[in-house]
Amino acid sequence: MPDSETLTRPLTSDTIETLANRVSVRAFTDEPVTDEQVDAVLKAAFRAPTSSNIQSYSVVVVRDPETLEKLSVITAGQKHVKEAPVFLAFCADLTRIDTAVRGKGGNMDSNNLETGLVSSIDAALVGMSAYLAADSIGMKGVMIGAVRNNAVETAKVLGLPRRVYCVFGMVLGWPAKVPQQKPRMDYPAVVHYERYGRTKSGGKVDPAVSAYDKALAAHYKGLGMPTAEDSWSHDMGKKFMPEPRQNLRKELAELGFDFI
Q1: 184-201: string of b/e by CB count within 10 Å (b at 16+)?
Q2: 62-67, Cβ contacts within 8 angstroms, sequence gap of 24 or more
Q3: What is the Cα–Cα distance from 216 to 219, expressed in whole angstroms?
Q4: Which of 33, 72, 96, 118 pairs as cysteine with 82 (C-beta 3.0–4.6 A)?
Q5: Could you report the per-residue pLDDT of 129-171, keeping only the tens digit for each?
Q6: Which phi and psi angles does 6 have, rounded to 5°?
Q7: Which of 146, 124, 18 lies closest to 79, judged by CA?
Q8: CA-wise closest residue to 53 among 122, 101, 139, 146
Q9: Would you say 172 and 139 are in contact if contact means Cβ atoms under 8 Å apart?
């Protein structure tokens, strides 16, 4: 049985509330995001977990309008990228590991799936931590996965050397308009107990896709936006048929990441 102290511990906190209220924001005021604010966010984010302390990430801070314009083109013309108060490029970076390994007489030429995957996870953990830190002081933003539409071109724009690629970008600023939060999949549909597919009571987990289709359709209709009745399934079908970014594996191999 839980002790009395455990039973009285709070079930919420500032961090939980920040995450519970998180939305993607694409419209910003003219108030600048200062270097000091970016530094504070990133220094906090760099305390994120990192596999075996390899710290295989780097961040490129972008403000130059010409660079933002080029990134906007790569990301299919996203206006909020072009007009970003600040754009953070979160990169998987094996260069420091490569230097250490070469210093011991080895090399990273046989870089494999595990190394590339770990560095990508490291970058993602830092990125989400940065978003949470920024949100906690009132900034908002949106993740930009479309930098991978052309990973090689993104690397050229950002001046990334071999063994570095941009996993995703992030636009940050002070929000001018905060959209209504989208519903998420029902909690029981995505939480499994002891084994995949098992509910807390031992029953079978319901994927709940049909229910979520209806909930998301109702959300969009409430905003006056066109949508299909099977909203989520319809969107996923469009997104993954045909397969997106079919050249990505080849592009990442060119940048020094072997995902085979």
Answers
A1: ebeeebeeeeeeeeeeee
A2: 62/86, 62/87, 62/88, 62/89, 62/158, 63/87, 67/157, 67/158
A3: 5
A4: 72
A5: 999 999 999 999 999 999 999 999 999 999 999 999 999 999 9
A6: -60, -40
A7: 146
A8: 122
A9: yes
| Separation of first and last alpha carbons in the chain | 48
Buried residues in 92-109 as b, exposed as e (16+ CB within 10 A): bbbbebbeeeeeeeeebe
Structural domains of the chain, ranges and CATH numbers in brackets: 11-177 (3.40.109.10), 187-235 (no CATH)
Give the pLDDT of residue 258.
Answer: 82
Look up residue 189 and give its two tokens: 């549909």
Tell how many helices (H) and how many strands (E) occur in the chain: 12, 6
Identify the segments of the chain with pLDDT beneath 50: none
Core vs surface per residue 147-176: b (16+ CB within 10 A) or e: bbbbbbebbebbebeebbbbbbbbbbbbbe
- Are 156 and 70 spatial neighbours (Cβ–Cβ below 8 Å)? no
> With 0-12 CB in 10 A as exposed, 13-18 as middle and 19+ as buried, what is 119?
buried
Nearby residues of 131 by Cβ (< 8 Å), 6 or more positions away: 22, 141, 143, 170
Give yes or no for a cis peptide into 2 (omega within 30° of 0).
no
One-letter identity of residue 213:
D
Q: What is the predicted pLDDT for the residue at 149? A: 97
